[in-house]
Design brief:
Number of domains: 3
Number of helices: 20
CATH topology of the largest domain: Glutamine Phosphoribosylpyrophosphate, subunit 1, domain 1
Distance between the termini: 12 Å
Low-confidence stretches: none
Radius of gyration: 26 Å
Largest sheet: 7 strands, antiparallel
CATH class of the largest domain: Alpha Beta
CATH superfamily of the largest domain: Aminohydrolase, N-terminal nucleophile (Ntn) domain
Bound molecules: fructose -6-phosphate
Length: 615
Amino acid sequence: MCGIVGFTGTIDAREFLLDGLSRLEYRGYDSAGIALVQSDEASELGIIRVKGKIADLREAVAESDLSGNCGIGHTRWATHGIPSEANAHPHRDCSGSIAVVHNGIIENYAQLRSELIAKGHEFLSQTDTEVVAHLIEELYSGDLLAAVRATTAQLSGSFALAVLHASYPDTIVVTRNDSPLVLGSYENGALVASDIPAIIEYTRDVIYIGDRDMAVLHSDGTIDCYDATGVAFAPKTHHVQWDLESAQRGGYPDFMLKEINEQPRVIRDTLAGRFDSATGELVFDELPLTAEELAAIDRIYIVACGTSYHAGLIGKSIIEAWARVPVEVEVASEFRYRNPIITPGTLVLAITQSGETADTLEAVRLARKAGAHVIAMTNVVGSRITQEAQTVLYIKANLEIAVAATKSFLAQVALLTLLALHIAQQRGMLSKEQVSEIYAEMQMLPEQIEWILANSDQIERCAQECVDATTALFIGRGVGATTCFEGALKLKEISYLHAEAFPAGEIKHGPIALIDTEKGTPVIAVATQSMTREKTLSNIEEVLARGAKVVAIATLGDERIHEMTNLVITIPPISEFLSPITASVPLQLFARAIAIARGCDVDQPRNLAKSVTVE
Ligand code: F6R
């Protein structure tokens, strides 16, 4: 969604603000702007905003004489009001001496706006954010921190706010509720951003503040933190391991391709240290649950959204097969609005790459309220979910920039597979020999992915055959079907080609009607080694008989599939429950190749945001 940056220090703030905003471009946005306390001691803040890209903002800033050591910046993803310069942040008060950038949604903005208009405030935008600037102006009587506190006390909804005041040339005041903010400092000053990539070049020691906490950033790099009642507290510092390289393309044409290529390393990192060959057991030191407690679990809920939800679906099949515990996978936005049955034997696993997805966070709060033990699986150290769940399992994906999740998905599936092994072993469902055999097979995965990446020309060739399609169907069975759900999501989100996935057995119960014999609708079939491969082959025959153009993901050496279609993508042999980890890779590359051929921006697909922090 929107991105926030802020800097106060001993050097010009412009470069940090513009660079920081560029690093947040991946979140998706339609307009951008910065505000600076001007060096010439003007009573008005300098503000530049543009509808469009950071490059346009950079140009506008270069053409202006705006400069200063203290400033805030924003990339806006429209919610209230069309994308336009007037609606772009920062927003200011009537006097022009207060500027505000905001992520989130002020739910009671309409009422506040009418009240402020009645008091004579003049509004220049259609946004919910502008009320914040006017409210601070209304409540300001010489103490900015107090005015911001009094303002946020009147706000309902979600917000991350950074506030600038012309009378405070060295200071930024920030606060948040249900929307992320990360703070840090280095030798030249103090920094704030909505996400780590904007500040990682300057510091890896970061501070998160809680809901309605406030912080004051000073130009000497100090940061004062206060709770909602104004009591000062010493913040906890989190050390982020991510490397700076992750925030750069490193020679790849786009982040998506870079991140797809990082997957062998991601799987190696996920596996490292998870198996103790001396004891023959999995190592899950983070998990406080004993073997008895794991044996007592009678139901697991997995809650997640989007790609993380698909990882959860794969996790369900594996956990149920190995650990013999019933698993229900729920879209977080549905789970939170019903009354899920949570008993003392219920374990809840919340999966979220960003750790900030609003619906997943709410689902976690609901589950905890109902007394469930909640395990969070996330990629982001210190993210909101890590503060809400009792137990945190970190995936080792490193920073993911492309909006379309790839390496984080593979890391989630790999960690879920290890977790399934652990639960199964602790419940006595798998022997040490079985566990070490499966773990040994998992160690082949990185090399297998490398093989797939090295043989990507076969994927490219198949993709070119489907570029002009208007719809694509994905079919598979078992974990092959759930792999297809993710394949279809990748294709539609980055190429805008309509795609749907179905369990292959379901195709004749309706979706087969979508096959256009004349045009040869593409059907992407995951037909790797599995218990149900024969059945999938029959389904492939059915769609071929109706004129479909079948692209098959098949196991190397499978001669039969080549007799059925000449569009075959082969992957190395692996057992069924590990196959989503390899079979997903060609589907990612397939989606990307189609998107590129259709002229799409694969890193920043239209209308999408990397982390969805609003409901
Ligand atoms: C798809 C994608 C989204 C996210 C979803 C959940 O490529 O990236 O569908 O998976 O918004 O995000 P997290 O995992 O951060 O909760």
